[in-house]
Amino acid sequence: MTKKFLTSNEVAKILGISRVAVFKKIKAGQIRAEKIGRNFVIDEKNLMEILGKTLSEKNKKAIEESVKKTIKEYGETLRLLGKE
Questions:
Q1: pTM of the full predicted structure?
Q2: Among the CATH numbers 2.60.290, 1.10.1660, 1.10.10, 2.160.20, which is that of 1-53?
Q3: 38-65: per-residue pLDDT in tens?
Q4: Could you tell me if 57 and 22 are in contact, meaning their C-beta atoms sit under 8 angstroms apart?
Q5: 37-41 CB contacts, 8 Å cutoff, 24+ apart
Q6: Domain limits of the chain?
Q7: How far does CA 22 lie from the centroid of its chain?
Q8: pLDDT at 84 exceeding the cut of 80
Q9: Contacts of 49 (CB under 8 A, 6+ apart)
Q10: Radius of gyration for the alpha carbons in the chain, expressed in angstroms and rounded
């Protein structure tokens, strides 16, 4: 099984941003990348997450926690609204 990696230049072209912007997103943790030598490479599997078409596990957990909090705080109100 071979891994398919994209360079920072390729990701920049796909996202329509500059290569420097890609590096800033990598540094900020918005894009997961591996450093090979002096270059960063991005796993092709992460591309859909970068494009926002899939949810990462971190985002899924954040959504679940938000839903639980909303139900806990506004459960009765939501039930009443559902009856209308």
A1: 0.60
A2: 1.10.1660
A3: 999 999 888 877 887 767 788 889 999 9
A4: no
A5: 39/7, 39/8, 40/7, 40/8, 41/5, 41/6, 41/7, 41/8
A6: 1-53, 55-84
A7: 14
A8: no
A9: 55, 56
A10: 19
- The DSSP letter of residue 17 is S
> Could you give the dihedral angle defined by the CA atoms of residues 16, 56, 29 and 36, in that order, rounded to the nearest 10 degrees?
-80
Contacts by residues 43-50 (CB-CB < 8 Å, ≥ 24 positions apart):
43/3, 43/4, 43/5, 43/6, 44/3, 44/4, 44/5, 44/6, 47/6, 47/11, 47/14, 50/11, 50/15
Cα dihedral 44→46→47→48 (10° resolution): 130
